[in-house]
Every structure is written in C-alpha cells, then in structure tokens.
Amino acid sequence: MVSRNYNISFTTIHLQTVPLFLIISFLIYLYKNSNYQTPPHNKILQTSENFVATVAGLFCILVRVLKNYWKMGSGQWHMEKRSTLKNDSFVKEYNPVTETGSLSIIVLGASGDLAKKKTFPALFNLFHQGFLNPDEVHIFGYARSKITDEELRDKIRGYLVDEKNASKKTEALSKFLKLIKYVSGPYDSEEGFKRLDKAILEHEISKKTAEGSSRRLFYLALPPSVYPPVSKMIKAWCTNKSDLGGWTRIVVEKPFGKDLESAEQLSSQIGALFEEPQIYRIDHYLGKELVQNMLVLRFANRLFLPLWNRDNIANVQIVFREDFGTEGRGGYFDEYGIIRDIIQNHLLQVLCLVAMEKPISLKPEHIRDEKVKVLQSVIPIKDEEVVLGQYEGYRDDPTVPNDSNTPTFATTILRINNERWEGVPFILKAGKAMSSKKADIRIQFKDVPGDIFKCQNQGRNEFVIRLQPSEAMYMKLTVKQPGLEMQTVQSELDLSYKQRYQDVSIPEAYERLILDTIRGDQQHFVRRDELKAAWEIFTPLLHRIDKGEVKSVPYKQGSRGPAEADQLLKKAGYMQTHGYIWIPPTL
Fold this sequence. Notes:
Layout: E1 6-9, E2 12-14, H1 18-32, H2 48-68, E3 78-81, E4 103-108, H3 113-128, E5 137-143, H4 149-160, H5 170-178, E6 180-184, H6 190-206, E7 215-220, H7 227-237, E8 247-253, H8 260-271, E9 279-282, H9 289-292, H10 294-299, E10 313-321, H11 330-334, H12 337-355, H13 364-376, E11 386-391, E12 409-415, E13 425-431, E14 438-445, E15 462-468, E16 472-480, E17 488-496, H14 497-500, H15 509-519, E18 525-526, H16 528-546, E19 552-555, H17 563-572
Parallel strand pairs: 4-5, 4-7, 5-6, 7-8, 8-9, 10-13, 11-19
Antiparallel strand pairs: 1-2, 1-3, 9-18, 10-14, 11-12, 12-13, 14-15, 15-16, 16-17
Helix pairs in contact: 1-2, 3-4, 3-15, 6-7, 8-16, 12-13, 12-16, 13-16
C-alpha cells in the first residue's frame, strides 16, 4: 500500500482535519455516556458547561481550517495532489511515491573500455537477478562510433558472461541484448542528442508512459573533460519535460578534476545544470562488500565501541597494491599519478568510514555529513610524512616522458585533529608493480601494559579487513601455543567470506551503485562539499609534486616498494609482525 499526500478541498479540505472529526466524535460519545459527570481525576472537563465549551472551541477550529481551504466559485468536492519539496537523496519514508514510469538507462561512451568491462556487465547482472524489469527498462548506448545495434551487442557480449556460466545464462543474455539500442553522435552537438531523445521517447510511448513520469538515468562512462558539454546537451534535449513522478539522474566517474580548482570548476559547471540530488559521483570502492559493512561493523557491535579511539588504537593503515604496472596506459596514468588515481578518492573514502562518528540515522545526508566532518578535521600533510616512488621501467613506456616525476607508489600519513583520533596516524599506502595484489584496512592496537608473558616482540593485536581479493575480516591475537609448555604464538579469529558464505554470490561494486542510483539512494556517492574537502587535503601536496619539489624514488618491480616507506611506517609507530602470515582458509 503506497501512501499518497493529498488535499481534499471544498473545493479543498486538508486530510489533516480528519483527526478533528475523530476528536469531536469521541468527546460527544463521552459526553453522552457520562451522565454529565466527569471523573474526579480529569482536570480538563470539570463541568458539563466546560465540556460543551471545549467541543464548541474545537468546532470553531474546524470551521477555521475549512475556511482556509475554501475556494470560491466551486460547487463540488474534489481531491487535489499537494506539491512537495522532493529530495531524492533521502529515503522517502514519510511520503513515498510509486515510480511506475518506464526506465531508460543511457550509457554514454558505450563503445569504450569502462562501458564494456564494468557498466554493461553490471547492468546484465542486475537484469539476470531480476532487478531490471524487461517490461519497464530499455538500455541505450551513445558514442561517436558509427556502429549498428547488433555491432554494439557483439562488442559487449563477451564481457557479460564467463565461459563457466555461459550455458546457464544463455536465455537471459539473449533477452538482455535485445533491450540494447545504439545511437551514434558527437558529444557536443544537439543533433545526436535529439536523435537520442527521440529514441528514448519512442520507448516510453511503447510502454504507455505518461510524459514526465519516465525515469532517465545517464551514465557518463567518459573522460571528465567532456562532462560539461555532455551535461549541457542532456539538460537541453534529453530530460523529462515535466515532473509527474519521473526523474533524470546522471552518474559521473572519477577523476573529478585534478586539483581543488579544476574539481570546483567541474562541480560548478555540472551544478549549474542539475540539482545535487540528481548528481551521482561514483566511487566504486564505496560499493565493495566489506566497505559497505563498515558502518554495521562499527555501530552494531558493542565490542568495538570502547576500543575505537586513540586510547586503544596505535595506528591505522589503508593499503592498496597491484602486482602489475600501467600496462599500456602509461600516458594516461602519467597525467594523474597514484595519489589522484587511488589515494585521494578510494582510500580517503575508506578512511572516512573508519574514522567518522556515528550518524544520527542511516539517511544518506546524515552519513555524508559525518564523513565531511572527518575530512575537515584532517590537518595539512607534512612533506616529511610522505614517501613517493616510481617503479623501474615505468619510463620505458613510449607514452611516458623521460623526465617524469609521476609517482606510481605513495605512502602518506594523515592526522585527524579531533577528540577521538588525535595522535593516531592514518597511513594511506598505494602502489603499482608491487609484490602482491590486495586492498585492506589494518587497525593496529597499542601494546598491552604490564607484559607478563614477554610476548610483545611477537606482534600487536590487529584487526584486518581484507577488501579484495578473498574478502575477510580477521583479528590477530596472541594465544597459548598448544602443548605442555607455556609459550605464546600469534593466531587469528577469522571470518572468511568464501568459507562462511559459500552459497552467497558477492555482487560487484558497480551493480550495487547502479541499483542505488535507480533507487535514488546517494549514501554511497560523493557529495560536492565532500569532494571539495578531499581535494583541499591533497592539492597542496600535488602541486609540490607537479613542481618537482617532492621527488619519486625508484623501486624494483615485484617489491614492497621503496625502503623509505617502511622506515616512515616505523617512525609513525607501526610495528610489523614477523613470522606470521595470514592464509585464507580453504573450503
């Protein structure tokens, strides 16, 4: 049952007057059944005269309400929908509206790598799991390439299913591909977008969707440089012509600029065309299973509440490693570097969830408010708490300048100036061509005071959240080694997802985030002030790197990175555990 917010008028009576009728009816009932007496404890109605006066007063209020909604010149009652201020970013728990219009998903940059490898596979998985109704949805690809519908389908087909599951998904794949239509055109010309709008409108008409009630989702799988002209074309030619429950939303990919100034310029250009609740700045790390688990882990478990602060935690590491280099993308990567590519967005978003205070509710704005507070509490980065590296062979790529100082590795320490985290270093570390591929959060606790077992050199307690691969959470503990002797050893309490949730398929991050966009939930997307605060932290350092004031030191491919990074971690208070290696359990 979906609630509707209506006015009833004479011509208009507000539904809020209904409780007055109920109150009056209840009081009259009491009056008739009380023999004109009031109970001794009732201080409101002392006499029958007071009772009548009370009823009369309520009746006057009712008349006044009716008068306020009276419209002259009408001879009948009717119902009228009340206009409301709608904010897509809040859960519509007080005034839900059923979305019945057709859904059009438009992938701009449809012939590019991002669309092929991430966007279309995510849409197919949502379709296969029943989240995209074929009776409502249609998918449009738009790009400059002059290809047909069938050529686009053939281009993406191989990315939608793997060979292992191909036979099980043949029927679903065929149905999904039939939903895809391609429109070719430039990104800065109205002709192409007029054709796109015409194609969308034909789909909406075929679904008998009233104008203005349709839902249009534009996914910009494009370089940020074309966001402004594309957004302008969408606004001018492809949005809903009226608001009858439908919506227009756009999804933009990182990088959101290269520094504070360019990010603010980009935000201003898009913000001049669309309202903030219509803009979804996607950071796919916020769609990862264990990143989404952070709020539940922190605020639904009493165990962590007294421990999650500077009194118990020595340091926090958030680490991203890849065991391969730029692989032909050297020219593109050299424009950005590892800090802009990974640390300023992905790792910083994870830091916010680790460090934020408990929000007053799970409404997206309340959660994002707390994240912004964390970012605004970060003090300026010191050069002595930064180590940059560049793997040997990076400049061999012909698209990379011979004198490039762009870091492919970085370790930086952020410090949060608030009551909970003062004095606790947050170590953000990311690198390419490393010894392993992983991303994790490592929370190291302080030493136990009064070490009667003399076991501090074995390592501290650590709570590790493995984001990828092999999703897991494990707590490193010191325990007694089995046997007759009183000897201690490091072990773990382990929650490995593949072992614990064998029958559960963990969805890809893009699946979650696209579904959130369709549902209008902005919790896992970056708000404009959040983006600004993030760039304010890193822009001064990035400008010093661009000017060559902070140098990248070489490191060997397949290593842990520069030795200077390990020295910085030790200086920050991180104690490495020697002799212990976590091994994901086998099924």
